[in-house]
Design a protein that fits this description.
The structure holds two protein chains of two kinds. By secondary structure, chain A is mainly alpha-helical. Helices cover 78% and strands 0% of the residues of chain A. In chain A, helix 1 runs antiparallel to helix 3. The longest helix of chain A has 32 residues, at 2-33. Classes of the chains: A mainly alpha, B mainly alpha. At the A-B interface, helix 1, helix 2, helix 3, helix 4 and helix 5 of A face helix 1, helix 2, helix 3, helix 4 and helix 5 of B.
């Protein structure tokens, strides 16, 4: 029972990593387009230009991978539990934003990250047998 | 370089992606409900599992919601930074538990509510920190 819980958590971490990679590819692609979509008419052209970037498709593959693992996780775990553990991707996003997108991560943001991690631990502890 | 200003319009777009994401996850969970307890012991079982899940209408509804979310999310990211957009999506932590209580009859105990609350507090801290940095940059 305990090892299956560890497996589920591991799989959710894996989906979070895949999601983070997907977001990074998407965000760097959008940044490279240097386009601000202000009118609804512009959205179509913007999406066409965006999906012509190969990096977006690599991100999409990671997204699909994440989806398949996620579907497997949801067949075994509560939506609340799965979704709460998935919040780990805030930490991955914070690290990736700092290291790859060169964004500044201040004290308040790290505190927020620690609060999120504590929240995740509580949620995980509460998921034991009733 | 995309701007950092968080307008009401972007906030509404973020809220709509949150709603879409909540219902996407609800659809995916519904599509896997008949397969709960499915044992995967060989690679062939994975294909049987995927085939069973894909035959559910809820999965296809979920996938079309994913497409809509992608278009809205890309539009949002063309306007604001990733570190601004991601924390504001914390609304899901209110929507998802409420939706799973109402529609899936799942139970949430006090400890889990506390965890969800802490996650939400953390997410607010992260959002506020982004705002302060925006202000100092101006």
């Amino acid at each position: 029972m305990k090892s299956s819980l560890i497996l589920i958590i591991f799989l959710i971490v894996l989906t979070s990593i895949c999601d983070t990679i997907n977001q990074l590819f998407l965000k760097t692609s959008i940044n490279s387009l240097n386009m601000r979509v202000n009118a609804i008419k512009k959205i179509f052209g913007f999406i066409i230009k965006l999906i012509l970037i190969p990096r977006v498709w690599i991100g999409f593959i990671f997204s699909c991978l994440s989806l398949f693992i996620w579907l497997f996780v949801l067949s075994r775990a509560d939506l609340n539990f799965a979704y709460s553990v998935d919040s780990m991707h805030y930490i991955f996003i914070a690290f990736a934003s700092r290291l790859i997108l060169k964004e500044k991560v201040g004290l308040a943001r790290w505190m927020g990250t620690i609060l999120i991690m504590t929240g995740i631990t509580l949620v995980t502890l509460s998921s034991g047998p009733p | 370089m995309p701007g950092n200003k968080l307008t009401l319009r972007i906030l509404l777009l973020l809220l709509s992606t949150d709603f879409l994401e909540t219902f996407t996850h609800l659809c995916f969970k519904k599509s896997t409900l008949p397969e709960s307890g499915f044992q995967i012991s060989s690679p062939v079982d994975i294909f049987i599992f995927i085939k069973a899940v894909f035959s559910s209408g809820f999965l296809w509804l979920g996938l079309s919601l994913v497409m809509s979310t992608f278009i809205i999310w890309s539009t949002i990211l063309s306007k604001i930074d990733l570190s601004v957009a991601i924390p504001i999506c914390s609304f899901s932590y209110i929507f998802v538990p409420l939706v799973s209580v109402i529609f899936l009859n799942e139970k949430i105990n006090t400890l889990r509510w506390m965890g969800i609350f802490l996650i939400l507090m953390g997410v607010i801290f992260v959002s506020v920190s982004t705002r302060n940095e925006e202000n100092t940059l101006k």
